[in-house]
Design goal:
Blueprint (H helix, E strand, L loop, with lengths): L21 E5 L6 H8 L11 E2 L2 E2 L5 H8 L3 E5 L10 H11 L5 H11 L15 H13 L5 E5 L7 H18 L2 E5 L3 H5 L3 E6 L2 E5 L1
Parallel strand pairs: 1-6, 1-7, 4-5, 5-6
Antiparallel strand pairs: 2-3, 7-8
Helix pairs in contact: 3-4, 3-5, 4-5, 5-6
């Protein structure tokens, strides 16, 4: 910044998420929700403090080691879907399985896509799918390999009410089947109520847990 002072985004955050738990992070825009999610997932590094993921202190790991820790154990769902535009729905879902050198990547991907109601869209590119369909592909990809933890950043943020409700149901159905820990950022009170507890942020500080 021009005055030489660092911008403090998060401060005094002390939290723990237990295995199998579903936790929602709520707060106004700019409160630090997505930043907190990125830190917890090891996508970003804090300037101070300590973050542990899957029992591993992230401070001692470089970017490649953090990526290796997440591989096959952590799934992500983003507001903007983050699908590869030149790959079909099937290829998008199969890719993380192939990168993890898992056997039967394409059959597993097809099974997941059928589970989210896209059995007739396997060969479609993202641009040929609606927003709700793209997010269903993203959900199938996130749960490929049965992740131990799923991080979701505003998974219904770009969807209409009906599509958002379907995504919520699919998200929790898949999570219940796999047994994943779920940590999500949302403005959606309906989505937050489906979680075991809620964390509220304001101006980078944790206000309350419910």
């Amino acid at each position: 910044m021009p005055d030489g002072h660092a911008l403090e985004i998060l401060a005094a955050i002390d939290m723990q998420v237990n295995a199998g738990e579903a936790v929602a992070i709520l707060g106004p825009s700019g409160s630090g929700k997505s930043t907190l999610l990125g830190l917890l997932a090891g996508l970003d590094q804090p300037t101070q403090g300590r973050v542990s993921l899957l029992g591993q202190d992230l401070a001692g790991l470089d970017e490649d080691a953090r990526a290796g820790l997440r591989a096959g154990r952590v799934g992500f769902v983003f507001q903007s879907f983050q699908l590869l535009p030149g790959m079909s729905a099937l290829e998008n879902v199969a890719l993380p399985l192939q990168l993890g050198r898992m056997n039967g990547a394409r059959p597993q991907a097809e099974t997941l896509l059928r589970e989210v109601g896209l059995g007739e869209r396997l060969s479609h590119l993202p641009r040929q799918l609606s927003g709700g369909e793209q997010q269903r592909v993203a959900l199938a990809r996130a749960f490929a390999g049965d992740p131990e933890i799923l991080f979701a950043d505003e998974p219904t943020g770009n969807l209409d009410a009906d599509s958002g409700e379907r995504i919520i149901d699919l998200l929790f159905n898949l999570r219940d089947r796999v047994g994943s820990t779920l940590l999500l950022v949302t403005h959606d009170q309906q989505l937050a109520r489906r979680c075991d507890r809620t964390l509220r942020l304001n101006a980078g500080r944790l206000l309350a847990a419910a």
